[in-house]
Design goal:
Elements (H helix, E strand, L loop, with lengths): L3 E6 L4 H12 L2 E9 L6 H12 L4 E6 L22 H5 L10 H16 L3 E3 L15 H14 L1 H4 L6 E3 L7 H10 L24 H13 L10
Parallel strand pairs: 1-2, 1-4, 2-3, 4-5
């Protein structure tokens, strides 16, 4: 039986789902944390629910935050999601799908829940290889936040826990992430990646996230179970 707890940030996508599988393989009791933050790609909420059930999470907590009222992102505002960008464009520069301070906000909620659970480990599926250039996915951001976590919580200040932000995918390619997930028994048909799905929930196939997903499955030589519009 698991004797240690972990809060896993889960969007229902490839990265967070593989991260959950890796935590499960390390015998953590899984506490899955998902956010309904006003994102246009709401099918990820149902995907995260399915993933939490698949990995027998002790609890799947969905927290609602109105980031749409702040806006500033194609995911939360009336801004078109970029489509059909090439690899160079995806790799360099920060796209309009960046949600201001999103991972800082999400990690703060995860930190609060971890302290209540008396869990010292928070897992987040950030990646700095095959990703869209978001500044809050970089190793230096995670290291800075971990320092903050150990200054900001009663449990850490009193020496009861040392908070750790775990990023097992940080230096992996999307193909390697998918291969690792398959090795751990992940069912990727449960996951959702698209930033701009159709009304029926099908992936657009053209946004950065879809392009990176298709590239990952192609390079891993594993069939992509996603239903695409195009």
């Amino acid at each position: 039986m698991p004797d240690k707890k972990a809060v896993i940030l889960s969007s229902g996508g490839i990265d967070s789902t593989t991260t959950m599988a890796m935590a499960k393989a390390e015998n953590y009791a899984i506490y899955s944390l998902t956010f309904n933050y006003g994102q246009r790609h709401t099918p990820e909420l149902e995907a995260a629910k399915k993933v939490a059930h698949y990995f027998a999470a002790k609890k799947h907590l969905v927290i609602s935050i109105d980031l749409r009222s702040i806006g500033g992102s194609a995911l939360t505002d009336d801004i078109d999601v970029p489509k059909g960008r090439d690899d160079h464009a995806i790799r360099y520069g920060i796209p309009v799908t960046y949600v201001p301070a999103r991972n800082t906000i999400f990690l703060s909620y995860a930190l609060a829940w971890a302290e209540v659970l008396q869990a010292s480990d928070i897992f987040i599926g950030v990646n700095s290889i095959d990703y869209s250039g978001y500044p809050d996915c970089r190793p230096e951001f995670i290291a800075a936040y971990e320092r903050l976590a150990n200054l900001a919580t009663k449990a850490a200040v009193e020496g009861k826990v040392i908070m750790k932000i775990k990023t097992p995918l940080i230096s992996m390619t999307k193909a390697d992430i998918i291969k690792k997930g398959i090795e751990l028994g992940v069912d990727y048909s449960l996951t959702h990646s698209c930033y701009d799905p159709s009304l029926e929930g099908k992936a657009c196939g053209l946004c950065d996230s879809c392009i990176l997903r298709k590239k990952g499955f192609r390079e891993a030589a594993i069939p992509d179970p996603t239903h695409y519009v195009t």
